[in-house]
Design the sequence.
């Protein structure tokens, strides 16, 4: 028996040795130009058309027609990428593009105007597409989606390099939409040949971007290599390895020098404070404004939140500055509206009106007939992390001080999303990060249609305002547009108190010793353009 | 255990698997949330939700979904993952080697430590080595596994740079997760070995053996240990199948893309085909583990004859 | 009598004293500490231990000592109630299976096998996702995790008791089943059940902390030891008091119940291997 056991033991050991011993530890081995990064979760797909959360592959392996540059003063500018130049007709409906010369996909297939048409048609016709909102304004898009047409009427391919896009209604945010990774350009030939493998198998997921996706080990890591056929300037890092890590692992790995950039958003702000804000890392901090609004949503369909006075009282009862200071170490800025700081239409006039005033809140509650307070519920996404849960607990404490008895109910992410989409979440704390720099991106998402108000559990009732939000898209004159958006913002937040605007935050990264310079994504996403990272 | 007994047990395994499928069906009915909401996350619109539900076949009734799944399962087709767009069978086949490697390694570490320290405790009963190893094994059963993992990472990676932080395919990177996973098992094996050996050492045949001139050590190794192995082997078989199926926490801390992590992702994203597949697969492993434990029991126990 | 053995067994006695002390503290300390376990003070966040806050404060300025013992109270409840329920269920089903035999036994054991074959954490997650992170659903998920193995052990003990001659005799004499179970089988099973109960408590405590790790389990603003450890996981090395206090308490509780269970097993000497 003993002999049998020891033989088993030895064979098992040898087996496991040979099985594991062959592979070398990636990253730190000799090669100087390897960039090592961390992801907090694995991606789901490499195909931008079927995921609206995972953009690292679309951002680095593919290119869009246009791209966005951030200026020194924090404003953003739309600049050419695959499209070398463009012209807009006076009515704001027709856009004429000219593609850059000599662009090829990394397998050598040349880029043509037909590929653009193919890409937008695919966004509209792929059954599991999640990006239709980005191109639905193109003329004929509705017909194509409904199966009434075979091709997208609004895109007219003149020759290999020239094409026009015609919209069904003018929309000044359209160029910004073309500058997102959601609308990155695919090749008709490559995608058609790859079929179902496109977006799932690295060798078949071929783009024009600065990197080639080399390996995707599910649940573990993504490996990128510089694309030798890239049309632009060759990126500094020849290879990028992005590994899935737990936050505490990221922290340890960065301090040991096994990671080149750490994204502090994944760490607890208190850890960031004690570990990185002690002067030692001052020169390697990279900060960017997160172009997004944190807000506390109030559901008008849940009494007594249907009473605007009650909602206004809640707005006054929450001590936003102290939440910002204690939970995020003050690293952000209070927001009093809907559009975040940095948004192209940001109304300074709509700022500064909301003050922490528990006494005023109590008085308002008394006027509304709730002098003794009332019970309400806050829905919490339990996967959203300690900060979110701490913020909600402080809000609960704030509300208790004006007599509102708020209870917190936690849900796992899928149940939480289901509840919110059904329009029944009584109140919740969340964040919206801009996909493209236009107020429409945030306001239409939350209040632009009856369906949207249900999906976001605000159940906003004023149909006239909902219609104004839809109409504002089509205003061509910039000043007129700015005035209308500011007016709607004021009506929604100040008069109707649809939500409690909280703050926008700074996004802090720390770069390691091997990194010379690094520009985060313009809106402060965690996903980065790897070509904007320069190694020493 | 007779051959017909074994056949009966195998029949039992199938019945249990059928029960597991039924249980999954009930789970599907009660669990809220759907994959489309998770997929769209913040970027929802009603039109997209409706369209994707149809494309995933989620507009069909639950029983219809379940029975088409059952039909596939009989043919060995476990469907396709909603998110990863790959056959579930392939995903399991990709993930299982990681879990298997981890479990084998963890089991070896845990059992080697557990059995040796259990033996030391029994042989030096109520003296310093006994207290030392008993203390260690109690440490093994009383610390939450994620605390063990974090402390190991801190100490052996961060402070001492002995092992890599997370699994990268190399041999060394397997050590920390294996210790973390085997930690609790080591404690229980040590405790069982000790008590089981003590029981054997109290039996009269050990006195006889020693009277015949065997040394104490010899008696322990030759006679007592063999008899004491019986409950330990049973426990080990159960532990091993447990490790294969229950490494959820270890796999997520050390970023090992194994079965546990796959199942965790599946349930969090409501990827039902993937969840059904992984649960069925692990249930199968556990059932096999139980069967193996019984067979080993029969082989080792002289009182149960093998025909 | 057994009580004398118990006092003589130093380990068991010591463990029992510790458990009683912890229970007393968990009842008394939150009441007399002068702090509310949920009382926030954002101006004194993450204070290291000092003379006001013996164990420091957490990230919302709440007193860790008060929360520690309040959390212990909750964790003890989470350990005791589901364990009691699962022992009760396991006992009833185990005895029924053993006594009735045939298809009743088969069905019960099949049910136990099915629940034991699904990875426990996944099963617990389904329950917790379905009913939210409330007390009741944590209880329910722990019961589902535990009842199967208890039923198995009770059943095999009951089977071996049943084999004894006086029960066969009672059965042939036509004594009513219920009275055989209550008069003869149950009293003989009591040692097994006591030991099972004691040894399952530490399992429940550890399971609860594992659930917290996965972000399910007791949810904030509730407090439990597992939740406290998990929330302070990130601070483990910067502000160790936050994690070490609840982790240490988990260890002490688990060890004390383990020792107690072991000692009870030695003293009561139940029939089967547990």
Sequence:
């Amino acid at each position: 028996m003993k002999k049998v056991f020891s033989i088993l033991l030895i064979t098992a050991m040898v087996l496991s040795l040979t099985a594991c011993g062959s592979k070398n530890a990636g990253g730190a081995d000799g090669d100087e130009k390897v960039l090592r990064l961390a992801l907090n979760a694995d991606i789901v797909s490499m195909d931008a058309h079927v995921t609206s959360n995972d953009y690292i592959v679309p951002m680095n392996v593919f290119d869009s027609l246009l791209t966005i540059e951030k200026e020194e003063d924090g404003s953003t500018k739309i600049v050419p990428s695959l499209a070398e130049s463009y012209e807009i007709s006076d009515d704001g409906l027709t856009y004429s593009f000219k593609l850059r010369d000599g662009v090829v996909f990394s397998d050598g297939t040349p880029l043509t105007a037909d590929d653009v048409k193919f890409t937008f048609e695919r966004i509209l016709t792929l059954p599991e597409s999640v990006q239709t909102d980005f191109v639905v304004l193109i003329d004929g898009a509705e017909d194509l989606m409904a199966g009434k047409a075979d091709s997208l009427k609004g895109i007219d391919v003149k020759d290999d390099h020239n094409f026009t896009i015609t919209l069904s209604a003018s929309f000044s945010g359209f160029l910004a939409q073309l500058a997102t990774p959601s609308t990155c350009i695919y090749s008709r030939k490559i995608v058609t040949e790859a079929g179902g493998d496109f977006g799932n198998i690295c060798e078949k997921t071929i783009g024009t971007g600065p990197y080639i996706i080399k390996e995707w080990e599910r649940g573990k890591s993504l490996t990128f290599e510089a694309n030798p056929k890239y049309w632009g300037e060759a990126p500094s890092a020849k290879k990028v390895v992005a590994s899935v890590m737990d936050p505490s692992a990221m922290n340890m790995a960065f301090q040991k020098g096994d990671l080149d950039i750490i994204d502090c958003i994944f760490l607890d702000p208190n850890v960031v404070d004690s570990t990185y804000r002690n002067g030692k890392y001052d020169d390697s901090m990279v900060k960017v404004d997160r172009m997004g609004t944190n807000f506390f949503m109030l559901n008008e369909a849940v009494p007594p939140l249907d009473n605007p006075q009650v909602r206004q009282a809640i707005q006054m009862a929450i001590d936003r500055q102290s939440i910002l200071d204690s939970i995020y170490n003050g690293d952000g800025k209070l927001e009093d509206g809907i559009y975040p700081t940095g948004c192209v239409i940001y109304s300074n006039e709509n700022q500064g009106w909301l003050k922490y005033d528990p006494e005023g809140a109590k008085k308002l509650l008394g006027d509304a007939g709730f002098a003794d307070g009332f019970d309400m519920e806050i829905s919490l996404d339990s996967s959203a992390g300690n900060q979110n849960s701490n913020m909600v607990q402080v809000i609960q404490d704030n509300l208790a001080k004006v007599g509102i008895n708020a209870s917190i109910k936690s849900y796992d992410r899928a149940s939480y999303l289901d509840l919110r989409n059904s329009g029944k979440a009584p109140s919740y704390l969340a964040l919206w990060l801009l996909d493209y720099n236009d107020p429409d991106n945030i306001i239409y998402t939350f209040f632009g249609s009856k369906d949207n108000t249900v999906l976001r559990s605000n159940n906003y009732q004023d149909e006239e305002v909902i219609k104004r939000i839809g109409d504002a898209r089509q205003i061509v004159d910039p000043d007129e547009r700015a005035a209308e958006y500011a007016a709607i913002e004021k009506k929604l937040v100040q008069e109707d108190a649809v939500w409690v605007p909280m703050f926008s935050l700074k996004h802090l990264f720390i770069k390691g010793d091997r990194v010379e310079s690094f520009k985060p994504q313009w809106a402060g996403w965690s996903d980065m353009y790897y070509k904007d990272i320069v190694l020493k | 255990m007779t051959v017909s007994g074994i056949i009966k047990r195998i029949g039992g395994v199938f019945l249990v698997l059928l029960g597991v499928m039924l249980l999954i069906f009930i789970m599907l009915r009660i669990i809220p949330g759907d994959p489309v909401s998770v997929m769209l996350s913040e970027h929802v619109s009603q039109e997209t939700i409706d369209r994707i539900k149809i494309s995933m076949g989620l507009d069909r009734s639950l029983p219809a979904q379940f029975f088409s799944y059952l039909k596939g399962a009989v043919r060995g087709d476990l469907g396709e993952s909603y998110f990863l767009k790959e056959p579930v069978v392939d995903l399991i086949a990709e993930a299982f080697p990681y879990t298997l490697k981890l479990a084998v390694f963890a089991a070896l570490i845990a059992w080697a430590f557990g059995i040796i320290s259990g033996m030391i405790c029994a042989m030096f009963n109520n003296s310093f080595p006994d207290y030392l190893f008993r203390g260690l094994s109690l440490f093994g059963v009383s610390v939450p596994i994620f605390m063990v993992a974090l402390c190991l990472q801190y100490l052996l990676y961060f402070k001492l740079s002995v092992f890599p932080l997370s699994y990268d395919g190399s041999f060394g990177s397997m050590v920390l997760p294996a210790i973390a996973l085997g930690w609790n098992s080591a404690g229980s094996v040590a405790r069982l070995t000790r008590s089981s050996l003590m029981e054997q050492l109290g039996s009269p045949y050990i006195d006889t053996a020693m009277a015949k001139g065997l040394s104490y050590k010899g008696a322990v190794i030759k006679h007592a240990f063999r008899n004491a192995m019986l409950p330990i082997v049973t426990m080990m078989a159960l532990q091993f199948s447990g490790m294969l199926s229950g490494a959820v926490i270890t796999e997520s801390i050390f970023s090992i893309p194994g079965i546990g992590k796959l199942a965790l992702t599946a349930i969090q994203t409501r990827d039902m085909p993937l969840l059904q597949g992984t649960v069925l697969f692990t249930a199968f492993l556990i059932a096999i583990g139980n069967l193996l434990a019984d067979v080993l029991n029969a082989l080792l126990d002289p009182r149960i004859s093998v025909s | 009598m057994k009580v004398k053995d118990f006092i003589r067994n130093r380990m068991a006695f010591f463990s029992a004293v510790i458990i009683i002390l912890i229970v007393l503290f968990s009842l008394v300390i939150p009441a007399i500490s002068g702090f509310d376990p949920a009382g926030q003070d954002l101006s004194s966040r993450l204070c290291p231990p000092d003379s006001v806050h013996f164990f420091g404060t957490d990230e919302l300025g709440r007193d860790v000592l008060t929360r520690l013992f309040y959390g212990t109270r909750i964790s003890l409840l989470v350990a005791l109630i589901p364990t009691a329920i699962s022992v009760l269920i396991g006992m009833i089903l185990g005895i029924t299976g053993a006594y009735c035999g045939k298809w009743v036994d088969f069905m019960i054991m099949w049910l136990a096998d099915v629940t034991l074959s699904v990875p426990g954490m996944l099963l617990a997650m389904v329950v917790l996702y379905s009913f939210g992170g409330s007390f009741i659903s944590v209880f329910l998920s722990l019961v589902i995790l535990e009842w199967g193995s208890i039923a198995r052990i009770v059943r095999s003990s009951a089977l071996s008791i049943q084999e004894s001659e006086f029960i066969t005799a009672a059965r042939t004499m036509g004594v009513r089943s219920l009275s055989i179970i209550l008069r003869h089988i149950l009293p003989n099973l009591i040692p097994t059940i006591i030991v099972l109960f004691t040894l399952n408590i530490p399992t429940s405590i550890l399971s609860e902390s594992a659930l917290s790790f996965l972000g399910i389990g007791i949810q904030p603003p509730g407090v439990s030891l597992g939740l406290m450890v998990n929330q302070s996981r990130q601070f483990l090395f910067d502000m160790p008091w936050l994690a070490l206090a609840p982790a240490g308490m988990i260890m002490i509780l688990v060890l004390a119940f383990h020792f107690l269970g072991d000692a009870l097993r030695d003293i009561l000497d139940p029939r089967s291997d547990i």
User: Anything to note?
Assistant: The CA atoms of residues 230 and 301 of chain B lie 7 Å apart.
